[in-house]
Every structure is written in structure tokens, then in C-alpha cells.
Design brief:
The protein has about 375 residues and is α/β, with parallel strands linked by helices. It has 15 helices and 13 strands. It folds into two domains: about 1-170 and about 355-365, Rossmann fold (3-Layer(aba) Sandwich); about 175-350, Glycogen Phosphorylase B (Rossmann fold). The chain has helices at about 15-25, 45-55, 70-80, 95-105, 120-125, 130-140, 150-165, 180-190, 215-225, 240-250, 265-270, 285-295, 325-335, 345-350, 355-365, and strands at about 1-10, 35-40, 60, 85-90, 110-115, 145-150, 165-170, 200-205, 230-235, 255-260, 275-280, 300, 315-320. A seven-stranded parallel β-sheet has the order 3-2-1-4-5-6-7, sandwiched between helices. The chain has a six-stranded parallel β-sheet with strand order 10-9-8-11-12-13, with helices on both faces.
Length: about 375
């Protein structure tokens, strides 16, 4: 029985990495593995925390309200002193936190030190200044297994030279759950109070600066001017939620916007959409764009989203420097062209985004059967 410690940042929440790790662990054959998960924060999504517990993953909470390098290092040092782990798997795009996890694992002689990048966040690392490059070098030297959800994500965590030694492990999804179903579309719109004949522009993501909801609302205001049946559905929660609600009121579009909250069944929300819009300022991959395509939706996204996120032909990238009017034109054109929405699950599988394949590959890495 090999013991694995997953390390992630912030809280247990409906953010991408928390959900991805849960899905990977659920899909993985862990009969010869014991998996613990350390996160420096607390519990923001009790349902997700309970689901982790139900599948046998032990969660260790740091309980720290904010990121603090010394506290995280102390937590990890204590954990590795008390328990002999065979692998430490760091899952963060934060350069410093990855370096801390890899250094502590190295000092405790953990055999497998896996550094895994899920993001490309140049702005979030800017405050490190010259230390950014030192952290990239440390992450390269201290880890003995390097993964990224995209080439760009690997380059962020390890630098361009270090990224050459990294492999891409695609952030994957439970494909069958995303297959388009017209009856589910009707039922979800009824449940959410959205007219059946509305043109629904959708987005899934936490309300944080990275996800760029401010721009999303500006774009939707332009869409609504051109298409009175338009409706915006925003799925997620976060610190900027109330601010976004206030902006919707100021723009005069609030009656056409549904703030849908969070759910453990996020795939159902895609059913109700007609087009998916994704204007993030940066992304490691942008797994929600893959989920949207799996559900047969056209995607209009920023060119900050890595090209690996494209699965189908209905995928268009625009610059965030383009005007909201230009974005609105692309959104309406994409929705108009999507007259034959159907099952795209085979395209998703062929592109390597099925969760069962990623989970099996990761299991083999933990067991030392694959690099």
C-alpha cells in the first residue's frame, strides 16, 4: 500500500483543482493506494468535502485564512515527519508553494516528488520579482516528476527549459455526464426560470479577477442590444459575486441575468446554454471550455486560453483588447451556426480528455509504473 499526499492551495471549494482532484480520485483504482489531501485553507464547499470523505480521501486542513509560506512549510514538515509518504503530489500554479512542497518532500526523502501545474499566472507571480526564476529552477531540480495541464502551464511552473522535461497530463472530465440531452435543456431552463426560447449565453467559474466577469457583463450588454431574447447564466460563487450583481443592475441587464450559484452537478447547467463565453485573463487549460464542447456548445474565449482547450471546430478565440461589440458579434454568430447541437463525447475522448484515461495514467505514476 503506497501513501500519497496531495497538496493544493486555498480551500476545498468548487474551483477547478478541488473538483478535478476529486474526479481523478473517484475514477482511480486506489485499491493499492492511500491518499491524503492537504490544503492550507478550510472548507468553502461542504458538499464537495463530504464527497471526498465518501470515496476515502482523508482531508487535512491547514485552517489558515490566507496564504502564508511559513505556515504551509511548517504544516507539511509536520505531516511528513509524522507519516512516511511514498509520494507528494503538488497541485498549484503558485511558484513559491510548489517549491515549498518539493523542498520539504526532498528533505524528508520522499521517493516521488510530483510537481503539477494547473495554471499560467504571470500576474500572480509578478510580486516574486527576480525570485520567480529561482522558484522555477527549484521546482525543476527538486521534483522528479513534472506535469502540466498544458505546455504553457508547464513553462509557468518550471520555465521554458525545465518544461522540456515535463509531460502533459490533461485536465479531464467524466465525459458521459456532459452528453447533450434536449429534454435536460428544457428541464434546466424551467428550473432556473429561463424562457425556453431564450438565447442563453453561459459561463462557469468562480467570481474572481482571473475569470473577468466585469468584461463578461459588458459583452452581454452588447449582446442584449442586438438580441432581445438573450439571457446570461453565470454559474459559480466567489468574492466578486455581489460586485457583479451590482454591475448588472447598473448596466440595466439584471432581469436578463441568472446567477445560478454552485452545484455538484455542474454538467446539468451546460445543457441550458446555447453558447459558452470564456474571457479569462489567464488559464492553465480552461477545463470548463472542454466541458462546454463536450455538451455540444460553441465556445467563444479569450486568446489567453491555451490552444489545447480546443476539441471541436466550434471554438473561436478573441483578444481581450477587442471591443465588447466585437465579442458580441462573435457570440451571436456562433450561436446562429450551432443549429445541429449533438453528442461530442467521442471527440472529447479522442482528444485525451476522458477522466478514466487520466486517472489510470496518474495511478501508474504513483505506483512507479510510468513516468
Amino acid at each position: 500500500m503506497k501513501k500519497v499526499l496531495l497538496v493544493k492551495g486555498a480551500d476545498i471549494c468548487y474551483g477547478g483543482v478541488s473538483v478535478l482532484l476529486y474526479q481523478l480520485m473517484k475514477a482511480m483504482d486506489r485499491s493499492d493506494l492511500q491518499v491524503d489531501l492537504y490544503t492550507y485553507g478550510g472548507i468553502d464547499a461542504k458538499d464537495l468535502y463530504d464527497q471526498y470523505c465518501e470515496i476515502g480521501v482523508n482531508i487535512i486542513l491547514g485552517g489558515h485564512p490566507n496564504y502564508n509560506a511559513k505556515e504551509i512549510a511548517a504544516d507539511l514538515n509536520r505531516l511528513l515527519r509524522e507519516t512516511k509518504f511514498d509520494a507528494v503530489h503538488s497541485n498549484t500554479g503558485r511558484l513559491e508553494m510548489t517549491a515549498i512542497a518539493m523542498l520539504v518532500a526532498f528533505l524528508h526523502r520522499v521517493p516521488l516528488r510530483l510537481a503539477h501545474s494547473h495554471n499560467t499566472n504571470p500576474s500572480g507571480s509578478a510580486h516574486y520579482g527576480p525570485r520567480s526564476r529561482l522558484y522555477q529552477i527549484a521546482n525543476t531540480l527538486l521534483s522528479n516528476c513534472k506535469l502540466g495541464c498544458s505546455v504553457a502551464a508547464s513553462e509557468h511552473l518550471f520555465g521554458k527549459r525545465g518544461a522540456r522535461k515535463a509531460s502533459v497530463l490533461k485536465n479531464a472530465i467524466d465525459t458521459p455526464k456532459y452528453i447533450y440531452d434536449p429534454e435536460k435543456k428544457r428541464a434546466m431552463r424551467e428550473q432556473l426560470g429561463i424562457p425556453q426560447d431564450a438565447l442563453v449565453v453561459g459561463h462557469v467559474g468562480r467570481f474572481a479577477p482571473q475569470k473577468n466577469h466585469d468584461f463578461q457583463l459588458d459583452v452581454f450588454a452588447e449582446v442584449l442590444q442586438r438580441e432581445p431574447r438573450a439571457h446570461l447564466m453565470l454559474v459559480g460563487s466567489g468574492n466578486l459575486l455581489e460586485q457583479c450583481k451590482e454591475k448588472a443592475e447598473r448596466l440595466g441587464v439584471a432581469s436578463h441575468v441568472t446567477f445560478a450559484g454552485t452545484s455538484t452537478s455542474v454538467w446539468d447547467f451546460y445543457q441550458a446554454m446555447d453558447v459558452f463565453v470564456f474571457p479569462s485573463t489567464y488559464e492553465g487549460l480552461g477545463i470548463v471550455a472542454v466541458e462546454a464542447q463536450a455538451c455540444g456548445l460553441p465556445v467563444v474565449c479569450a486568446d489567453t486560453v491555451p490552444p489545447e482547450a480546443q476539441v471541436t471546430a466550434a471554438f473561436e478565440q478573441l483578444s481581450l483588447q477587442d471591443s465588447p461589440a466585437r465579442w458580441s458579434e462573435a457570440i451571436l454568430a456562433a450561436a446562429k451556426a450551432n443549429t445541429a447541437r449533438g453528442d461530442c463525447s467521442e471527440q472529447v475522448r479522442a482528444a485525451g480528455y476522458d477522466i478514466s484515461d487520466s486517472a489510470e495514467r496518474l495511478r501508474r505514476i504513483y505506483l512507479g509504473e510510468q513516468k
